[in-house]
From TrEMBL:
<keyword id="KW-0378">Hydrolase</keyword>
<dbReference type="InterPro" id="IPR029058">
    <property type="entry name" value="AB_hydrolase_fold"/>
</dbReference>
<feature type="signal peptide">
    <location>
        <begin position="1"/>
        <end position="17"/>
    </location>
</feature>
<dbReference type="GO" id="GO:0004806">
    <property type="term" value="F:triacylglycerol lipase activity"/>
</dbReference>
<protein>
    <submittedName>
        <fullName>Acetyl esterase/lipase</fullName>
    </submittedName>
</protein>
<dbReference type="Pfam" id="PF20434">
    <property type="entry name" value="BD-FAE"/>
</dbReference>
<dbReference type="InterPro" id="IPR050300">
    <property type="entry name" value="GDXG_lipolytic_enzyme"/>
</dbReference>
<comment type="similarity">
    <text>Belongs to the 'GDXG' lipolytic enzyme family.</text>
</comment>
<dbReference type="InterPro" id="IPR049492">
    <property type="entry name" value="BD-FAE-like_dom"/>
</dbReference>
<feature type="domain" description="BD-FAE-like">
    <location>
        <begin position="69"/>
        <end position="255"/>
    </location>
</feature>
<keyword id="KW-0732">Signal</keyword>
Length: 303
């Protein structure tokens, strides 16, 4: 025989079960297990690497920016080594210097000083523009040149590289001479001896990438629109299947460089999507092999 409290509990349960669902209100979705991005080969390599040291290259009112430096064994101040500076991507709004550690470390192993650059990220909330990102990239190269002797670097043998938005910033060090941090000594050129561009943001128009983030002045810092004679030798890696930074921009940049009398090499990956060589160890290694050969030809890497 049911006790009175149990009868009341059953009755209450039946009453609530019979209530209709509020119109337009869907049942709460079942929770899904959290997923994390699987590390690609570059992430896996980066996780095992630690820079020799970090060094502040720029002090701003709200932060300090640093160089993550990979020095070869036995390196010391007063040496005169070539230097490979690399800049991470992330649409100017994300990413970090650790992403490019494998590139800095690769050249460290070849006897160069490898450097991965920390720069401000574009954000409407903090007021950091893409022009500020450009200023930081140029400041980093200027700092290295200004302190070349104490860093043990040959200022005539500085290579700048980057992937995606970092490729744009690498190109910026050679191209956008009027975009500089106030107060810096602009007599110190930021132009490197060579550029190594990985699937770069190279066309900032609406047909490419970046116009919405940069604003009305996009053309001022769109590499394909600013090609001129006297730019450093450049090797560019790009996939024909890139829908983020379309291949057409890389092709136009390469052709424009040649037309202007500059040395340019375009390595095409048929069907390659944006960032293709970061996700495939064989393609990553191939990019190192090709970049090394290009730099050896220029006398920036020992044969």
């Amino acid at each position: 025989m049911m006790t009175l409290p149990f009868r009341l509990l059953v009755l209450a349960s039946l009453c609530f079960a019979s209530l209709p669902m509020v119109q337009g209100q869907a049942p709460a979705p079942a929770s899904k297990p959290a997923t994390t991005k699987k590390p690609d080969p570059v992430d896996q390599l980066a996780a095992k690497l630690t820079p020799t040291r970090t060094l502040v290259y720029k002090k701003l009112p709200d932060r300090e920016l640093s160089l993550h430096i990979f020095e070869p064994e036995g390196h010391k101040a007063g040496d005169s080594r070539a230097c490979f500076i690399t800049i991470h991507g992330g649409g100017w709004t994300g990413g970090n210097p650790q992403r490019m550690y494998p590139f800095a470390a690769h050249y460290q192993q070849l006897g160069l000083v490898g450097i991965s650059v920390h720069y401000r990220l574009h954000s409407a909330k903090t007021g950091v523009s893409v022009f500020d990102c450009v200023k930081d990239a140029r400041s980093a190269v200027r700092y290295v040149k200004q302190h070349a002797q104490e860093l043990g670097i040959d200022l005539q043998k500085i290579i700048v590289s980057g992937g995606s938005a970092g490729g744009h910033l690498a190109a910026a060090t050679a191209m956008f001479d009027d975009v500089n941090e106030a107060g810096e000594d602009t007599a110190i050129s930021t132009t490197p001896a060579a550029l190594v561009l990985l699937f770069p943001v190279i066309d900032c128009s609406k047909e490419g990438y970046g116009q919405a983030k940069i604003g009305d002045s996009w053309k001022e810092i769109s590499p394909v629109h600013q090609v001129r004679a006297g730019l450093p030798p450049t090797i560019t890696f790009h996939g024909t299947g890139d829908t983020v930074t379309p291949f057409a921009g890389a092709k136009a940049f390469h052709e424009g460089m040649l037309k202007a009398g500059n040395k340019s090499e375009l390595v095409v990956n048929e069907g390659g999507a944006h960032g293709y060589l970061m996700r495939d160890k064989a393609l990553l290694d191939d990019s190192f092999t090709r970049s090394d050969a290009f730099l050896k030809e220029l006398g920036l890497l020992a044969k």
